[in-house]
Amino acid sequence: MSTKSQQRLSTSSLILIGVAFIIAVSISNQVFKGWRIDLTENNLYTLSDGTRNLLARIDEPINLYYYYSNEATEGMPGLRAYADRVREMLEEFEDAARGKIRLQIIDPLPFSEDEDRAAQFGLQGVGLGTTPDPVYMGLAGTDSVDNEEIIPFFQPDKEAFLEYDIAKLVSTLANPERNVIGLVSAVDMAGSFNPQTQQSLPPWVVYQQASQLFDVRNLGTSFTDIADDISLLWIVQPRGLSNETLYAIDQFIMRGGNAMIFVDPVADVDPAAVEGMPQGMPPMGQGSNLPALFEAWGLQFSAEEVVADAELALQITGMDRRPVRHYGYLGVNPDHMSADDIITAELNVVHLAVAGFFQAVDDGQAVVEPLLTSSSASQAMAATRFSFLPDPGSLQTGFEPGGEQKILAARVSGTLPSAFPNGPVPTAAGSANGDSSSLPASHLSESSEAANIIVVGDVDMLADHLWVQVQNFFGQQIANTFASNGAFVINSLENLSGSSDLIGVRSRASFTRPFTRVDALRADAESRFRETEQRLQQELDETERRLVELQSAREDSGNILLTAEQQGEIDRFVDQRASIRKDLRAVQRGLDEDIERLGTVLKIINIALVPALLAIFALIAVWRRNRLTQS
Fold this sequence. Notes:
This protein has helices spanning about 5-30, 50-55, 75-95, 115-120, 160-175, 205-215, 245-255, 290-295, 385, 485-495, 500-505, 515-550, 565-630; strands spanning about 60-70, 100-105, 125, 135-140, 150, 180-185, 190-195, 200, 215-220, 230-235, 260, 265-270, 285-290, 300, 305-310, 315, 325-330, 350-355, 360, 365-375, 380, 405-415, 450-455, 470-475, 475-480. By secondary structure, the protein is α+β, with helices and mostly antiparallel strands.
């Protein structure tokens, strides 16, 4: 074959290869459309099963409008990286919804109609100082009947709950009707009449807030069935419940209903008159518990003990008007809250008063995840010590912390057994189990789906005086919060009243990955630096002590001139100090050298090694092709 023929064949082959490549790319784009491989360690770009199930049940189209000030954030690389993360998550939602979500990405330029529309939705334009224009990075959603939901601003520090926040917005638009909550309470949260003062008591603030978001239906404390439209039970101070009522609650949970339960060893908001109490003293608080249900689930609540905590104790005004730390009044801070649960992740402090604690039974079927815990400087004290306590400071006498954290509130989940496997019996019978032959046809001995329950060992935390101050401002009641009790309750009710799929969407890892190797090098060098610094301080103290001894030993104390021994000691210290400072600088240089050495290695790998390996593979491929051609 001639050289020209070979050239024409090579040219034709290249053209055919190019055409085949284009055809292959076009076919793969259609065949593998939507296919992705998430190679991140924590599957950051993969939606959870709960989110996918939620999106699969959308009936009517939902419009999402992502307002992001792209032009105004040109000089903010950190914020732009997170904005891209939000956009990618929204695109995952749009793709997984199969046409039921329509996403629009809008840059609301200043004084534009888009900015006006963003303001109408209620999105927040944040002034960041680096630009004169407000920065928008929020989401608005509408459904087919123009219901609206918004995320005012995507905060980078809430990245772990990004998927949950978007899923909650979509779920609310897909199910716009208000959820019905059944309230089972032995205390008058909805307001009452005080016969002593002859005045009406207003509803508790937490009850008012819940009523604005949900349809709160008061079930009382004596009922035998629960309506099907109730999605959640809010149980507060459940004392004196009959077996029939307990059975109704049990079967509600077995059918897949959720519950939020507040029990208390000593509930001051539920006073009881006690004979023999000193004149003028307030009534004692009553306790509450649900032992039949808790024990069946593998949970124990200490109704006769109160958690006393020296570290979390709040300061109150004692009987002599002096401030005193009350070991039974706790301010639970973020260090003792679950950072991985949406309920507690963003709270500041939750105030509890004379709270009990929970324990998980080893062989119980429930999964118990703590939400609020005491510190390790806590002790379980007899509840009777708190029933009549003229001096809270007396709790410090004999206080011995046990060194273990105690669960004050928890999420209980999993497949749970019924507390009434043989059905209900009359309260007078004194037994939790009846005759299996008389079981109702609808009886369930095990929960039909994974249960989700929040349990809290304190009822008083719901009362206004522990978390909010209500003031009258020209006839309008203004609530100023000083604790996150209300947010804890509302977060819990919102979470539990949603679908099981939404509840299953938990926090996930951040897409911003730390340089763990660099951090380890820095920590090691700083450790060496601190050791040298401590050695310097010790030698300094020793030298000063030696100088004081020399000075006191002088016979001519009035002479300001130093002796040869003193001067030599000082010279030795100066030389020693210079030497140690040199060591400190060497350690700091060693830190930089280790990090720079690591950076150099990475650069070599990225710039030289990877291209070299690719070149070697290409040469091997050419060599093998030539051998095949020659053979």
